[in-house]
Amino acid sequence: MQRKVFHLTQSLLCSRLRSLSTVCLFQCIGNIRPLFVLVKPEMNKTSYFYHFLLQPKPENAITIAVSARVLFNMEKEQHIYEHQGMEEYIKYQVEHETEPFNPGPAFSFVKALEAVNARLRELYQESEELFDVVLVTNNHAYVGLRLINTINHHRLFIERFCMTGGNSPIGYLKAYHTNLYLSADPVKVREALEEGIAAATMFTPEKMKEVSDNQLRVAFDGDAVLFSDESERIFKAHGLDKFFEHEKAHENKPLDHGPLKGFLEALGKLQKKFYAKGQRMDCPIRTYLVTARSAASSGTRALKTLRSWGLEIDEALFLAGAPKGPMLEKIRPHIFFDDQMFHVEGAAELGTVACHVPYGIAQRLNFHIFTE
Q: β-strand 199-202 against 354-356: which pairing, if any?
């Protein structure tokens, strides 16, 4: 199938549609809604233009809410806000609104989501089962122009904004049917988790590793991330030997779900759409379990739990307590989730964009050494 990419205004796009004779992928920017439009010769081109102009309905999409501070590098602006106050912050943003922000830690992840969407549109032209990125920020609306200019500059496909003018945006996440919320603010992340929304605090490595442009790679810890903290509680209360005994005795009993189970489920649902088209070996989504569990002594229960949920994981790495950073450096995921800051910091030191999931008994005990 021949594929061409154009950057067009609406009027020029309509002109192209009238004369188009091959299958084309249009990327529209500027003063119209960003979108992908797939047009076949036998289609009514005008009607398909307006059909694909629409964003997917929130209840059908996989909604990823990201804060402005993780999507873009806003360290200087944040420093002004913290040391000079809101009025100086707004003044600075307005004065510099034509200057785009540089990419932040979530930028490559969002670009990878868009690459998956492009592949899905090629295979399922009318499906609304797509990633839908929502920019969620407590910025004042005055700052919105700079954010819009930045999004257009980087050619990101983000149409949904939530700017709350200093108030917490957490209450809006459910209205957006949010599947995952990423923020630099740990307080907001905890609030989201308390509302039952998958959420994590994203950290910026000093030097981020290059990641794949055509395959979304997501790495998960096990306990207190994909799974509940049940097994971790046993370890904290009774020690490592009792933990191993407990896992062996309960290896056929699935663990309860953790906060990120639903996001893995959403990724798996999209993977199956590619498998159905014979693209298992060329799937643009790849998932990893990176756990400090030992394979022989406690790995069985983890794998059986995933199987009982009907979920596949592409690669499972049981590290038996070894540091995760070096292994993640080889995987080069766009994003890694862990409930232990020790592993988050170790991953970030080696260039991985790592996210902390503040969930489970480890957070309440405030320990620094854990099993995961």
A: antiparallel
